[in-house]
Amino acid sequence: MGIADLVRGKEIAVFSDEPYCHMVGEGGHHSLLEQPGMMDQCVAAYTFSKSYSMSGWRLGFAVTSERIADWVGKMINTSLSCTPPLVQLAGPAALGNDHQERDRVMGEFRDKVVLLTDGLNAIDGIHSLDPTPTFYVFPNVMPVCNRRGIRSHGLACTCWGGLMTTSESPAWEASVSAGPGAGFLRFSCAEPNERLQQAWTFCPKRFREPIGLRLISRAIPSSGSRRLTRLRNSRPVVRRWGGG
């Protein structure tokens, strides 16, 4: 409501990204479109990847007024094309199906978040709030970083280094990353419960180990070919081959 009051009647458009609309828990989801006058100033975007577990299908939709929809359609006409027919059929099928299955899966994600949050909070130096509307956990690891004299990015790299030699690597594979938010790590709970349990068993071991020189050979997909070749005191050195 505060955003609506701030922009209503002004030449300001709002793009509201609402991918977790079915994961909000208590209170339900409330879109900015529900506020008076916002249908003419707001575009609300939704994805099938979260609510319907269609990650990688690259399918979504937006809701707005007919006038804005016409403008948006012209702007993205050459950007969003050639969507496979199978994907186009799957979207309406998901929306038209009984939502009991969707709600059941959302409940399972909620249980996974609680499972991982409780496990991480039992580790000395880690504290995580309970993130209701998502399946990611964003624990504060600053005490661990301070003890080791590194930043959260270095802590994440230290954990990645351990993946090369430990049997617990499945718990971390594609499940932890370091980005904006110094002092925090991000965990994905979209994993089997056994892998989530492995994560908080694995964390204390890695957090206690001394930091040293680690050699890593792991491709990082991005524009251009890059490979993380060396981690010295948890500070990565990136080399680039080829143009661009």
Short summary of the structure?
With 244 residues, this protein is an alpha+beta fold. It contains eight helices and nine strands.
What are the defining features of this structure?
9 strands; 2 domains; Aspartate Aminotransferase, domain 2; Aspartate Aminotransferase, domain 1; three-stranded antiparallel β-sheet; three-stranded mixed β-sheet; 36% helix; disordered C terminus; alpha+beta
Write the layout of secondary structure elements.
Elements: H1 2-7, E1 14-17, E2 42-47, H2 48-51, E3 60-63, H3 66-75, H4 85-96, H5 100-121, E4 136-137, H6 142-148, H7 152-162, E5 176-177, E6 186-188, H8 193-208, E7 214-222, E8 224-232, E9 235-241
Parallel strand pairs: 1-2
Antiparallel strand pairs: 2-3, 4-6, 5-6, 7-8, 8-9
Helix pairs in contact: 5-8
Give the integer mean of the pLDDT values. Answer: 76
**In which order are the strands of the major sheet placed?**
1-2-3
Could you name the CATH homologous superfamily of the largest domain? Aspartate Aminotransferase, domain 1
User: Architecture of the largest domain in CATH?
Assistant: Alpha-Beta Complex
Please tell me what the overall shape is. Answer: globular
Tell me the span between the first and last alpha carbons: 45 Å
Total number of distinct structural domains: 2
Determine the CATH topology of the largest domain: Aspartate Aminotransferase, domain 1
CATH class of the largest domain: Alpha Beta
Indicate the structural class. alpha+beta
**Proportion in helices:** 25-40%
Annotation field: number of helices: 8
Low-confidence blocks of residues: 163-180, 211-244
